[in-house]
Every structure is written in C-alpha cells, then in structure tokens.
Amino acid sequence: MSGTRTNMRIDKWLWASRFYKTRALAAKACDLGRVRLDGALAKPARDVKIGDRLNVTNDSGLYEIEVVELSEIRGPAAAAQKLFSESEESREARAKLLAEKRVMAQFESLPEAKPTGRDRRMLNKFRGRER
C-alpha cells in the first residue's frame, strides 16, 4: 500500500485508515480538535508521516496510535488496520468504556411510543424552536 511517499495529508490518511467514513468528516474532526498529532492540534492539511503519534477521537472512543504505513486509497478494513498500531492502554480504555456503556444501557428507560404531535410541539417550545 505504501508508495514512495514519505508524507501525506492527515485527513486523507484518517479516511484511508477508516477512522472516519468520508474525507470531509475527517477534515471536520481535525477542525473540531478531535485529532492531535504528537500532542498538538492537527489541521486537515497537516502532513503525517510514518512514526507520528496520533490521538484520534471518534464515535468508538479515543485511539492512541502510531502511523506505521501510508496509503492514498481506502481499502478493506483488514488492510486499513495495517496502517497503524494502537497502544495497549488505548485498547483497554476503549474496552472499559464499551463495558460501561452496556451496563448503563440496562438502566436507560426508553419511551413506550413515538411522541405525538402535541408532545413534539411541547418539545419544540421547550427547546426554543417555537414557530
């Protein structure tokens, strides 16, 4: 997968390594401060190279990874996992967070039915979206 390139844009690498579904989402995550390169906030156009350490936050949690390989294309998940190596502490922290979410889901009460039109109007009024 790696060519002769020694560096590439971080948003493109995050997309190719399947941390984000689209390159636009990867760029937005960089803009929102969810991606750190060697401890500093990373802008989407910042170059990433082999050996860089990244902290990436997405829906699955916080990943502490090291760039192992560069790729311009988005391949299958098995190939994308070869682009980085994740620290053991990061894996354990995400597993712990997932277990906590599962336990909390047991105590979460879901509504018995969809909100009625009246309920929706009351919610909109409460949220300040009254027409």
From TrEMBL:
GO terms for molecular function: DNA binding; ribosomal large subunit binding; single-stranded RNA binding. It comes from the Bacteria. Pfam families: S4 (PF01479). InterPro entries: HSP15, S4_RNA-bd, S4_RNA-bd_sf. Residues 109-131 are annotated as: Disordered. One of its GO terms (biological process) is cellular response to heat. Signal peptide: none annotated. Residues 8-71 form the RNA-binding S4 domain. PROSITE patterns: S4. Keywords: DNA-binding, RNA-binding, Stress response. Residues 115-131 have a biased composition (Basic and acidic residues). Transmembrane segments: none annotated. Belongs to the HSP15 family. This is Heat shock protein Hsp15. It comes from Bryocella elongata. The lineage of its organism: Bacteria, Pseudomonadati, Acidobacteriota, Terriglobia, Terriglobales.
